[in-house]
Amino acid sequence: DTAVSQTPKYLVTQMGNDKSIKCEQNLGHDTMYWYKQDSKKFLKIMFSYNNKELIINETVPNRFSPKSPDKAHLNLHINSLELGDSAVYFCASSSKGRRQYFGPGTRLTVT
Amino acid sequence: DQQVKQNSPSLSVQEGRISILNCDYTNSMFDYFLWYKKYPAEGPTFLISISSIKDKNEDGRFTVFLNKSAKHLSLHIVPSQPGDSAVYFCAASDFGNEKLTFGTGTRLTIIP
Fold first, then answer.
1. In this model, does residue B71 exceed pLDDT 80?
2. What is the mean pLDDT of residues A30-39?
């Protein structure tokens, strides 16, 4: 059973489009995260939700909007995609400890 | 400003020998440190962690050492095996903040 899953694994789209990436965890964790790994392989946090409530919001353009319908899901919606949004996006989850469990990643390519 | 740094982008080690990966940090508020391992096309997987109240933590072939005064930690893998070939990320967090700050990673290659 996959603990943290993301769909799709690959996403190729054109500039200006709107797209969503879905994340689900079956670990019973309360907190979920979105990270972005850019072309320099730097892994940086974007958002964090705890029990459907936003608790971390790093400096991310307003075009990125996380949505948490329940504590097992955290989706990422991106409006008006730009070339610079091309990256690998990782979802993660954690319980009370600080160890985070990561999904397999979604490689987004904007052309 | 990069608060967690891994200055060696790559490292090659002979199978059976010791692999030593290094990490430096600048934020003195960090009190919990983790190492993650990442294979291509997969997400990072947790390897080992250490709290700032300790200076060493061991788990099988993996040992993490923390030098708080130098703001430095290292991961030792003994003996190194071909399956250890991956990218290793160092990460840190401070108490009350669940955000992890990652280093840029070190690609470890184990030579058979």
1. yes
2. 92
